[in-house]
Design goal:
Layout (H helix, E strand, L loop, with lengths): L2 E4 L2 E4 L6 E4 L2 E4 L2 E3 L1 E5 L9 H16 L4 E5 H13 L4 E7 L6 H18 L5 E8 L3 H7 L1 H18 L4 E6 L14 E5 L4 H15 L4 E5 L6 H10 L4 E3 L7 E3 L5 E3 L17 H5 L3
Parallel strand pairs: 6-7, 6-13, 7-8, 8-9, 9-10, 10-11, 11-12, 12-13
Antiparallel strand pairs: 1-2, 3-4, 4-5, 14-15
Helix pairs in contact: 3-5, 4-5
Length: about 290
């Protein structure tokens, strides 16, 4: 699709460069690309004309505040991925799997649903890739068996690569399952709560060991007062991407004594310009 139409306004999406993997980093248009992403909450679907205009303005504001990408849910993807492309924000689409997905019938049904989504999104310019989100834990390995878990997750990655060969794919990991080896992952995606600096450094070191020559994306699942420092530390310790929640907007007292929100407080990457952190700082590390 060459053009995305929004009312009378046409956006040429051919010029939107795709995101690719370049060893431990992502690249975009031949340049190293730091994925600084956030999720979009509270958006009612479907989007009418005015809602699309409002969302596009919101996305452009995010980009101006140094956000470089999005994570969209499966239900958001079709309505929002082209608008994300218009704003210059490549999107990862998260595919949620049911907890019982490791039974044969559930696996087949989930694969069919995933294939349907892939057909809908195939080749869309705003699409970065997919993250398979499965609520499995170390207990799942004991009840289902490691081989079955790995086989099912590998089947989803293969379905993604068959359905859209240009998209990158990963499985969302948690602390107790991060060591699982899954063939076909293009990058490593892991969640984390608020960690102390030493804990974050060790966690990222473990993820980099698992990733090898692949990029690592870390998602902070909860906002924290030290979030700016945590984001900076994640990039400085080898993350190729960070997904961060909205920050609680600080209040200020206006001249009439009315407490008002500072809107810039909600932008998680507002202090991180395009040249921060320096990619050269860690791209040469082993």
């Amino acid at each position: 699709m060459a053009l995305a139409l929004l009312g009378q306004v046409a956006f040429d999406l051919k010029t939107r460069p795709a995101v690719d993997r370049q060893n431990k980093l992502f690249s975009r248009n031949g340049q190293s690309f730091l994925f600084k992403a956030m999720r979009l909450e509270g958006i009612a679907l479907p989007l009418d004309f005015n809602a699309k205009l409002a969302l596009l303005k919101r996305l452009e504001t995010l980009r101006a505040a140094h956000t470089t990408g999005l994570v969209l849910s499966s239900s958001q993807a079709d309505a929002m991925v082209d608008l994300a492309a218009c704003a210059g924000l490549p999107a990862l689409v998260e595919i949620d799997l049911p907890q019982d997905v490791f039974t044969s019938a559930a696996t087949a049904a989930a694969l069919t649903s995933a294939a349907r989504l892939l057909r809908l999104l195939q080749g869309r310019p705003g699409l970065f890739g997919y993250v398979v989100n499965c609520q499995f834990s170390s207990q799942t390995f004991r009840t289902q068996g490691l081989r079955r878990v790995r086989r099912s997750l590998t089947a989803f990655l293969e379905t993604i690569h068959r359905g859209d060969s240009g998209a990158l794919a990963a499985v969302r990991r948690r602390a107790d399952t991060m060591a699982l080896s899954i063939p076909g992952e293009d990058f490593i995606y892991a969640g984390a709560t608020a960690l102390k600096p030493a804990e974050l450094r060790d966690y990222l070191a473990a993820l980099r060991d698992i990733a090898g020559q692949r990029p690592v994306v870390l998602e902070f699942t909860e906002p924290s007062p030290e979030q700016d420092q945590a984001v900076a530390a994640a990039f400085a310790n080898g993350a190729a991407g960070v997904v961060a929640p909205r920050l609680p907007a600080p209040t200020c007292v206006e001249w009439l004594g009315v407490r008002a929100l500072r809107p810039e407080g909600a932008m998680p990457f507002r202090r991180f310009g395009t040249n921060f952190p320096s990619v050269s700082f860690w791209s040469s590390k082993p």
